[in-house]
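Problem: given the chain below (452 residues), write out its structure.
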Amino acid sequence: MLDAAATYSLRDRRFHYVNAAAEKILGLGVEAILADPALPYLLVVEEDRPAAIAFLKQTASAGAASGEFRFRRPDGQSRWLAVRSFPVDDASGEPMRALICEDITERKRIEQALRESEARFRQVAENIEEVFWIAAPDGTQVHYVSPAYEKIWGRPAAELYAAPFKWMQSIHPEDQARVMETVTRLQAEQPLEMLFRIFRAGADLRHIRHRSSPVRDAAGRVVQVVCMSEDITEQKRLERQAEESARTQRDALVREVHHRIKNNLQGVTGMLRNYANQHAEVSAVINEAIAQVQAVAIIYGLQGRPGVVRVELCDLLKEVISGIGQLMHRGIDFRNDEQSIGCKVVVSELEAVPVALVLNEMVFNAIKHGSPDTVPTIDLKIDIARERAVLTITNAGLLPDRSERSLPGGGSGLQLIHSLLPRRGARFELINSPAGVEARLTLDPPIVTLKC
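Solution.
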């Protein structure tokens, strides 16, 4: 729509010229405006008339003036008009005022819609608990950050407008490099979600879930990145609490099961002892079976103790030595390297029973085949660098030449040892040494781990 145009005489206070566009904008006929110059003023809505009067006074005195008013046309339509005036002279030199009137109703409607949209946006953004961000694709400029930033980060939001990467200074050192690389390399390419930790002002550790998504224009170019940062510290605490509760219940159930299995196995060994006492001719075989059952019972006994979540090799070995010593009425000299280096050897839960049976066979065979006049010696050595435990049982005697290397066969005890050995992380050897025959068991990860 063309702008309305008119000329107004300061001498006779009348319009001398009004174009056709004025009729369309004001809804008044040109002749009516020329006949009654007060008609346009009477169309100004009541609330805007003080501003219109100020405009007219400025027009009369200074010549140049501008203003925006609402007009109500005779047909009832309400229109926003922007009016400008400036001084001109007619052909005779008479001072005149030129008036330009532009219909800005649509612009005002858009502005109002934008204000309402921004108000709704701020109402949401400034009242949600998450931090809402709008930033440049490369992160070098922050266009908006919601007040929740100050609550979660414990820092003023205003600092981000001056230093957009300031928020990263609060990230836990272990997470900083990963977050920086992800944000700078991928944030402008695809939607992201990542978890990291921050130190809120006052050294309060918080867990954050950060999500971002690029915003593209009509041409497909990324023009902004919108982000949402949520404090999930309480959620993490509840998850840990639930996991701990489930673990506690599981451990209690497992301990109860282990305790009952141990009691049943002890009942079996009791019956075997009674049978061995009544049948001396098979007592040696029965004692060997008792030792094997005891070895399994030891594992379940250790795992069934309150507060025990792991089986330590030293504890397992002591129980095996004690059980076999009582069964065979023999002593064994046990030397432990753990105390001197301050490390514990923990046996994998999955391999605890096979390892117990192997230890049982090694100790039982050392007593069974050793000299009655000597005491077998057991050494537990730890190689921290390799995370390795080496168990050596030394007995007086000498192996035949064919036994210098690891034995694939041998007696039933050795066959059992080789059949029980885990395929990875365990090696058994029988060798001659100056001190006598050495049965050596080497345990590596994943069979064992060192806790130092």
